[in-house]
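tool=predict chain=A
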Amino acid sequence: MLDKVLSSVRLRLPEVKARQDQLREAAAGMPPPRDFAGALSGSGLSIIAEFKRASPSKGVINAGMDPSEQATAFEAGGASAMSVLTEPDHFIGSPDDLRMARSATSLPALRKDFTLDTAHVWEARVMGADAVLLIVAILDDALLARLLGAAREAGLAALVEVHSRQEAERAIDAGARVVGVNNRDLRTFDVDLATSEQIAPLLAGVDVRIAESGVKGPEDAARLRAAGYDALLVGEYLSRSADPAGAISGLRGAV
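tool=predict ok
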């Protein structure tokens, strides 16, 4: 499934690369990004609330969500930041979702997509994103370093996602300051919160530690906070909730 998603991204990449110079020029005229890492550095547990209509593993979750309404609920519930899927073929996402969600709130926004080239970084900046996702499992060390450099140049935070101890070591060696541990195995799509617990000791020196995937309620939030995480990225749980603001408040109040 991951290969199918990446194939779709690669098919669209030449068009984005062809616009890289124009994107860089357009980025120069954009307002300053919001401070994604800073928003997650306060006291207590921070929540990155995700706008997610569908996924390859779960299929359609909530196709009818409105980005502005959902983002407003995220902010009302006390989310510190948000994540917005922009991949169209497998997640039913779009750049417009990100633009609408961000314009409805003061929250910094992560562009949740598969970043494979520096052109994707500049595209994210022009979309209005404040952070980009860099997935170590799909990047070699040289490309990871280039993408981190491009994010710094563009003024964006980089959430560097890992799934194993080896990937965590690679991320730290590359200079990642915001590291997310995805509890979902990209090969099997199985979810295990123990993944975050096992990797947590390796992240003592990074600025922001984020646990991703698998949070189904306050008990999970408390477990991951106890493991040392500063923030949780929560998607499906909020997309299925009739009261996302209340769900976020419940997660934050669990610790």
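The radius of gyration is 17 Å. The chain has 13 helices and ten strands.
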